[in-house]
Structures are given as structure tokens and as C-alpha cells.
Amino acid sequence: MADPIDFSTPDPSVRELLATHPDLSLDAHDGLLFEQVPLETIAHHVGTPCWVMSSGTLRKRAARLLGAMEAAGLSVSAHFAVKANDHLAVLRILSECELGADVVSGGELLRARKVGIPASKIVFSGVGKTDVELRLALEERIAQINVESVEELEIISALASGMDREINIVLRVNPDVDAKTHAKITTGVAGNKFGIPYDEALPLYRRARELPGVKAVGYAVHIGSQILTVAPYRAAYARIAELVRATRAEGLAVSVVDCGGGLGICYRDEGEGSPDAWAGAIRAELGDLDVRLAIEPGRWIAAPAGVLLASVVLRKAVTGGASFLVLNAAMNDLLRPSLYDAWHGIVPLSARDAMGKPEVVSVVGPVCESGDTFAQARLLPHLQRGAHVAILDTGAYGAVMSSTYNARPLAAEVLVDGHTWSVIRPRQTVEELWGNERFPDGSEEAA
């Protein structure tokens, strides 16, 4: 497993970051624009912290990914990984782009159905599906359930039989392939909680064909997230291809291979995972199997489509060290830096601030945890109290992972589309934090 990246290159400048984010631009008068909307306008009217998603970026990246598959001669069923961003407005846009949904909970399944994604375009993944969630999947007649264990297979069979239903199941295989990504987002090596050990997959597939209520149709594999090279994909897909051939050699039909997702983006200067290269890997290893192919993109589509706006609360000087910039956004808003040591670009909204003299600072939030840190010893333009910044690439695993820790209300969410913008989730009020809480005597207020 790879450790967090130890960057040896200098931090990219504002200009260098914007060069890798084509839907962001810096105007001398209006400052940082997302599509054609000045982000200062949103910060002024909506306040900070505030999430901003770009409709245009979502559409462009979905089209580019599907186009890469088509150019490679692949007929692929694409299911957006709802765990990356489950906002209804985002899901509706991607549904209009012809993407289905990859869900990992009953709540995500219902969100997908709420925006009109057909049940026939929904796959259900995850290691701990409850009986209630499985019954929901059966009632909705979704496309397939990705089965993670022999125990889960038997539960699904029993539930489906009891409901007089039959559902397509795909066995998720753990191929023991290291994606060389962060240890907390790798999912395809031995010892991970995900998937069925490779050597046990064919015997279980054989068993599945005998069980009532389930129809075994193929195999799935997902080896992790933020994958930047195709070598791990090719290694995993080659193992799945061997498994498909071995299964067919026993006279068992295989009609589906779910290729998972995990394609990475450029957060800093590491380069971006290539949809064309990913499509090439799928074609090279699986293209001759005569199966229906599926993919589960999430981060690659949604992450660059979002930013988190924040304000500088104060500068805290440190004798003999880098000053702290304390933001009004925190780890309860954006957890990734605290959880994964993730690197996110930080760009001032003001053109004047963006062109300021660089200095080394640490950027932190106000939550009472030392881990509430967005950047350590980061080279940034000099920023004063009240300055506004955008934290980049937060459209995936950003707002969806937020909490109300330290009694901090959930931030507002805004969607931009060309020259227009609209609030798609109002800022939570402090009173709403305890709106559904009760005292033991049933009263809503203290005596």
C-alpha cells in the first residue's frame, strides 16, 4: 500500500493551479470565476463557508469519460458512484448525461430514484447491506447487486425467495492487486474488507447458480480510488478475464463484467488519470469476452466540479515559524485533509490577493482538533483577515462527508451554470441543529 505522497516539488502557484482547472479563471476586476460566475458574488450574498458546484464541469467530464469509452469501441454502462456526491441537483445533471447510479445504501438508492434514474440503471455495492436495504433493491428491481461475501449471497437468496423475486447478482472479486494509492482508499488487496478472495470466486459462482432467487450473471472488481496509472487496472482486469474464461469452461454463463471506478484527478501537480488510457486497459484485457461492461466513476467526474469557499478569520503569528491562517471552514466541512492527508489547492477569490507576495503559512480551521488542518507550510499569497479563498477539487467526498461537529451548521450549497447561480441547499441554522432533539420527559425545551 502506498503511503501519503511526500511532495518534493514546490507548491504550484495560483497561475499553475488555474492552468489545470479550465473552468476556473481569474479576472482582473471580478476575481476568481467558476464558469462565468464571480465567486466573490456568491461569498457576498450567501456567506462562507459555502460549497459551489459547476454544472458545466459535470457535463463536460461525464461526456469526456463516455466519449473515451466509445472511442475505444466499448459499449459501457456507466453508473455514477453516488457516495462521491449525492446532492439531488448533481444526480439529476448526471442522469441527464445518461449515467446510472452505483449506490452503497438504501438512502443513496432512494436519492437516485428521486431524480428519475431508472431502477434498471442502478447497481448496489457495499459490504454491509441490511435486510431492509436488500428488500428495497428487490422491490425496485434494480439492475444488479454486487455481492461481497458468501454470507451476503445466502441472505439475498433467502430474501428474494421469500418475496418471490429473482435478481441479478454479480460477485465482487478481490483480485489482490495493489492500486498504489492511499492505504485508506485501496480496496483490492488481500486483507481489505471488500470482495470475495480470488480463489473462492469460481466455487461461489458455481454455488450461486444453484440458489433460488438469484441469477449469477458475472463478476465485478474495484481496486481503489485516486488511481493515476493503468497498470493496476490491467493487472486486475487480466485476473478477471482469467476468471471469466475458467467459469465458462465449466459451462457456466457469464454476461457481465463490472470494471469498478477509481480514476484519479490532479489535485496538485501529479497529473490526472486518463479516461482514454482506462478505456484502453478495459479493451485490452476484457474487450474480447463478449460481456456487457460497466464502470462506476465518481471522483473523476465530480471532484473538479466543486470548490469550498471560506473566509480568513484571523492570522495567528508564530515565533520562529510559519503563521497560521485560521479559516471559518473546518474539518467538519471538508474532512479529506484530516482523514487522508489530502492536498487541495487554495486560491484567493480577489485578483489583488491572488497576485500578492507569496509566504509560507499553515491553513487551519477553528475546530478543537489538531487534525483540523487544510495545509501545512503551504506557499500562498499573503492574505489578511476577511480575505476569501476557494479550496479546490471538493466536488467529490466534500459536502457529502460533512458533519455538524462542534455544533457547526452544515454549509450552504450553490450550483453555477454559465452566467447564473442558485442556492441548492440553504445554510443550516443553528436552531435546526437541535430541532429534532427531545428531553427525556418528552418536552422540547428545558423547564
From TrEMBL:
<feature type="binding site">
    <location>
        <position position="369"/>
    </location>
    <ligand>
        <name>substrate</name>
    </ligand>
</feature>
<keyword id="KW-0210">Decarboxylase</keyword>
<dbReference type="GO" id="GO:0009089">
    <property type="term" value="P:lysine biosynthetic process via diaminopimelate"/>
</dbReference>
<keyword id="KW-0456">Lyase</keyword>
<dbReference type="InterPro" id="IPR000183">
    <property type="entry name" value="Orn/DAP/Arg_de-COase"/>
</dbReference>
<comment type="function">
    <text>Specifically catalyzes the decarboxylation of meso-diaminopimelate (meso-DAP) to L-lysine.</text>
</comment>
<dbReference type="InterPro" id="IPR009006">
    <property type="entry name" value="Ala_racemase/Decarboxylase_C"/>
</dbReference>
<dbReference type="InterPro" id="IPR029066">
    <property type="entry name" value="PLP-binding_barrel"/>
</dbReference>
<feature type="binding site">
    <location>
        <position position="262"/>
    </location>
    <ligand>
        <name>pyridoxal 5'-phosphate</name>
    </ligand>
</feature>
<feature type="binding site">
    <location>
        <position position="397"/>
    </location>
    <ligand>
        <name>substrate</name>
    </ligand>
</feature>
<feature type="modified residue" description="N6-(pyridoxal phosphate)lysine">
    <location>
        <position position="83"/>
    </location>
</feature>
<dbReference type="Pfam" id="PF02784">
    <property type="entry name" value="Orn_Arg_deC_N"/>
</dbReference>
<feature type="binding site">
    <location>
        <position position="336"/>
    </location>
    <ligand>
        <name>substrate</name>
    </ligand>
</feature>
<comment type="pathway">
    <text>Amino-acid biosynthesis; L-lysine biosynthesis via DAP pathway; L-lysine from DL-2,6-diaminopimelate: step 1/1.</text>
</comment>
<dbReference type="InterPro" id="IPR022653">
    <property type="entry name" value="De-COase2_pyr-phos_BS"/>
</dbReference>
<feature type="domain" description="Orn/DAP/Arg decarboxylase 2 N-terminal">
    <location>
        <begin position="69"/>
        <end position="303"/>
    </location>
</feature>
<dbReference type="GO" id="GO:0008836">
    <property type="term" value="F:diaminopimelate decarboxylase activity"/>
</dbReference>
<dbReference type="InterPro" id="IPR002986">
    <property type="entry name" value="DAP_deCOOHase_LysA"/>
</dbReference>
<keyword id="KW-0663">Pyridoxal phosphate</keyword>
<protein>
    <recommendedName>
        <fullName>Diaminopimelate decarboxylase</fullName>
        <ecNumber>4.1.1.20</ecNumber>
    </recommendedName>
</protein>
<comment type="subunit">
    <text>Homodimer.</text>
</comment>
<keyword id="KW-0028">Amino-acid biosynthesis</keyword>
<feature type="binding site">
    <location>
        <position position="299"/>
    </location>
    <ligand>
        <name>substrate</name>
    </ligand>
</feature>
<keyword id="KW-0457">Lysine biosynthesis</keyword>
<comment type="similarity">
    <text>Belongs to the Orn/Lys/Arg decarboxylase class-II family. LysA subfamily.</text>
</comment>
<dbReference type="InterPro" id="IPR022657">
    <property type="entry name" value="De-COase2_CS"/>
</dbReference>
<feature type="binding site">
    <location>
        <position position="340"/>
    </location>
    <ligand>
        <name>substrate</name>
    </ligand>
</feature>
<dbReference type="InterPro" id="IPR022644">
    <property type="entry name" value="De-COase2_N"/>
</dbReference>
<feature type="active site" description="Proton donor">
    <location>
        <position position="368"/>
    </location>
</feature>
<feature type="binding site">
    <location>
        <begin position="296"/>
        <end position="299"/>
    </location>
    <ligand>
        <name>pyridoxal 5'-phosphate</name>
    </ligand>
</feature>
<feature type="binding site">
    <location>
        <position position="397"/>
    </location>
    <ligand>
        <name>pyridoxal 5'-phosphate</name>
    </ligand>
</feature>
<dbReference type="GO" id="GO:0030170">
    <property type="term" value="F:pyridoxal phosphate binding"/>
</dbReference>
